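Here is one chain, start to finish.
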Amino acid sequence: MPTIPTAFADVTASDSALRRFLHGLPGVDAVGLEARAAGLGTRSIKTTAKAYAIDLAISMIDLTTLEGADTPGKVRALSAKAVHPDPTDRTTPSTAAVCVYPDMAAIAAEALKGSGVKVASVATAFPAGRAALDVKLADTRDAVAAGADEIDMVIDRGAFLSGRYLKVFEEIRAVKEAAGPARLKVIFETGELSTYDNIRRASWLGMIAGADFIKTSTGKVAVNATPANTLLMLEAVRDYRAQTGIQVGVKPAGGIRTSKDAIKFLVLVNETVGADWLHNHWFRFGASSLLNDLLLQRQKLATGRYSGPDYVTVD
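Its structure:
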């Protein structure tokens, strides 16, 4: 099993101890959180910084297809786009990863071999997470065996919302062990957690259990990543590193569609946790359509004009 940080050994000894710790975290000032997120979103980014931010955002994307109609051909095409997002300009950075269902992980791994682009696979009965633990662990092992470098798991929101925190904690630890060398992103589905206090509790629970990343959402519900919930999670990873020395990544996912949106999130990262997180090892965007807008904006900066609709592929 993954090692629990020494500072939290007693906290995780029982359900009641874990509940006391999580409910003892400072309450979130919702008005203050949203005001700070909104204020940072108004920062003006000049041309040179904008060009840097666009390339950085491209390099942080987990280019994603998670549809029932996914085919091997679609996954190969998406993988090719991840490696060379703009075939007419080889200075365009590759994306961080391609994110697919476990049964497509082998297809993506073959297509991405030697490129440096990671294979991320959702597992653990994504997106609902409604399956027995042995099924979730088998799902995880299968994805890693097929070539997944990263596993995106969903927590049991029903258990979390009913206060069974130790069950959620132990499940994350078990999936982390099953993932072996693959990095683990733990998805909270923040739109279903209802309150900012719950998002803070889930963040600490995930990190203590061994998450390499904490992730906002599946992209499959009405409310996904927002500046406010991402800011709250960034504050959590900052405070966790200050207490333990362990750095954890953050991945907002769902609803981030434009370059303007992405740059707002990068400002949040820079102003909240600093340059240490401004790298795709520690910050990702879960997105599909975002890449196209970033490419169009990149072309606009390079040529002074917007390209036509046929400049980018339709994913």
